[in-house]
Amino acid sequence: MPRVKYRDADVDLMARMMRAEAEGEGKQGMLYVGNVIVNRVVADCLDFRDVRTVEQVIFQVQGNNYSFEAVQKGNMFYQRARPTEQRLARQTLDFWRDHPAKYALWYFNPSGECPPTWYGQPFTGQFKQHCFYEPVAGTCESVYMG
């Protein structure tokens, strides 16, 4: 049973996002980005109460901007999904979770060191250039279930 319900179109959309956000960090980095996307679909809390699909997560607008820089700037997000990224997307949609993104709802690529918190959320770890953050304990139990 997959972690979230999805269609083939969701696999393609997620594969494009994973590539656009983390191609430079290899397959592992792309898996972590996919993990955060699925966590946001599962999370019924904080900024993610009203997003229940991959498409809603990827095109979510917060503070008058898209949540993901790749959607804002376009870069590689609007290229076709490749089989490698499609396979990685299915992997995260179906079962894959791992530290530091296992329960993360946010990530970003700072210009320096990863701060210990980001918008008040605790740092869970770093992979190459991306820093990952999960919700403060007790504020989003659903992310730990799905």
UniProtKB/TrEMBL annotation:
Domain Cell wall hydrolase SleB, chain residue ranges per copy: 24-133
Origin: domain of life: Bacteria
InterPro entries for this protein: Cell_wall_hydrolase_SleB, SleB_dom1
Gene3D superfamilies attached to this UniProt entry: Cell wall hydrolase SleB, domain 1 (1.10.10.2520)
Recorded coiled-coil stretches: none
Record keywords, A-Z: Hydrolase
A molecular function GO annotation: hydrolase activity
Pfam families, per database record: Hydrolase_2
Name assigned to this protein: Cell wall hydrolase
Originating species: Solibacillus faecavium
